[in-house]
Automatic annotation (TrEMBL), chains A, B, C, D:
This is Heme-binding protein. It comes from the Archaea.
Amino acid sequence: MVESIPLATATELIAAAEEKATEIENPMVITVANSEGNLVAQHRMDGAWLASVSISRNKAYTAAALETPTHELAEPSEPGNSLYGLQNTDDGQLVIFGGGYPLERDGEIVGTIGVSGGAVAQDRTVAEAGVDRWQELTE
Amino acid sequence: MVESIPLATATELIAAAEEKATEIENPMVITVANSEGNLVAQHRMDGAWLASVSISRNKAYTAAALETPTHELAEPSEPGNSLYGLQNTDDGQLVIFGGGYPLERDGEIVGTIGVSGGAVAQDRTVAEAGVDRWQELTE
Amino acid sequence: MVESIPLATATELIAAAEEKATEIENPMVITVANSEGNLVAQHRMDGAWLASVSISRNKAYTAAALETPTHELAEPSEPGNSLYGLQNTDDGQLVIFGGGYPLERDGEIVGTIGVSGGAVAQDRTVAEAGVDRWQELTE
Amino acid sequence: MVESIPLATATELIAAAEEKATEIENPMVITVANSEGNLVAQHRMDGAWLASVSISRNKAYTAAALETPTHELAEPSEPGNSLYGLQNTDDGQLVIFGGGYPLERDGEIVGTIGVSGGAVAQDRTVAEAGVDRWQELTE
């Protein structure tokens, strides 16, 4: 069974992320996906980069497909390390830099969030605002 | 510069479409795109088909890329008619059945809406609820 | 050896096609390719459809790849006919409706032209203006 | 509505770039795209590399999709840096070495130019001839 995040919850997480993006003055594209990495909702804020439409979606996909925050994938994917070449697999859907996070309930991943539109630090800050909102909702 | 539909407007159109989809008890995936067919916002209602994630997005793309409602493409694309084979072009992005509509302002296409999730008649009904909302907003 | 059309000639053919497109008031995308179907030059006239960027290029590709005008491919590709399914082959690059033409010199195909942006009859009229210019130049 | 670079302007920029490419004796492929990264015009100079057809187009795409000159992407995309893996995202459309530049008017990106065909230094020199021409035209 695919555990999913309801659309109403997904848009709440996106709203929290958008609020943070507005606060740091960096328009973002924000995607919430289900536990199979398939889209629940995606918003492109006014002025956000076009490339981020694909990248935010694939960050959300990657967090589901490898059940991990995407920023943990960069180091093992470097030349000489164990997963070197990871970013070229899975039909080019994997993103190995930060901004994608699993969303868990009772230790199970039930969805993910992926954010793109700025430097990686900004992407992570905005995505974490969505994760924080998720944690408030599931407490 | 892309004079696009702002995200706030896109989510209003999606809300109007969702309301109609709820009324007819048929969960849908709804996408609003800009005039170049690139995503502004996309929502997958709870229970909507997975295939509709791609189809609704490509209906929105098609309405922009050929500047036409997608239901007008079916007949000319039939075997024996002038555009037979159209559905196999443009990297498989063109959808030739109903549910994609241009959104115009002062005679210019400034965005599109694409809906998928039911029979084509249902898809069109839900998409037209979004188009109607657009027309109210631009009056 | 790949026989090619020089860029200077390609832009002359495109100019002739653009003149015709302007005359019939239908903005078009026009591509000239070499005998391997690879691009020499492509112009998108102001207001031409986005989908035509891909379709005009693939009409030029198809005319080279099958050494035939594309309008001759529709009938054999219909259900029940010998090439049914052709439009799904070659990684989706083949276009089976009119608007792509080989350009010959001494009975050899040395390039192609592909036009998209209107009804098929319009596409063919505009492409043929390019073919006519080619014939004047090679006489 | 896409406020794009008109075709007539695009071919002027390409002509300026071609003149520079001729001067440095390095045939190039030159693409001008609109602000969403979609093609306005593309020319392959006689003798230019086949791979450059795709690369020049994707440099133009990248400059639009990330709103940045492409040469600024190389360093952050190196192993160990924050965007390592960027070149594998967005369906392989992103080029992270030099030769793609945004074209701005009143601080807004209204199009881009992408050049490929030589060493990156040559690509940049030729692309910058197009950017210079753009700046003369918009003064």
